[in-house]
Hints:
This protein is 78% helix and 0% strand. It has 79 residues and is mostly helical. It comes from Lutimaribacter marinistellae.
Amino acid sequence: MFRRFGILAVLPVVITVSACSPAAQHEAACVGGTLTGATIGGAIGNRFGGGTGQSIMTAAGALVGGVTAANSMNCVRPS
C-alpha cells in the first residue's frame, strides 16, 4: 500500500523534471545530489563524538558530504 503512494508522490516530480530543459534537469540533479550527500554525510558524522562534539561532527559531515556530492556531479561553477 505504501509503495503505491510513494510512486504517486514521485510521479509529478519525474514528469515535471523530464519536461524541463537539459540545463534545468542538471540543476535539479545537482540540488538532489547535494542534499543527498549532505544527509548521508550528516548521518555518518553523527556516529562520532558526544554532546557538543557530536553536533559539530554532524554539521561537518553534512558540509563535507554536500560539497563532495556537488563537486562529483560537476555542480560547482568556476568563478
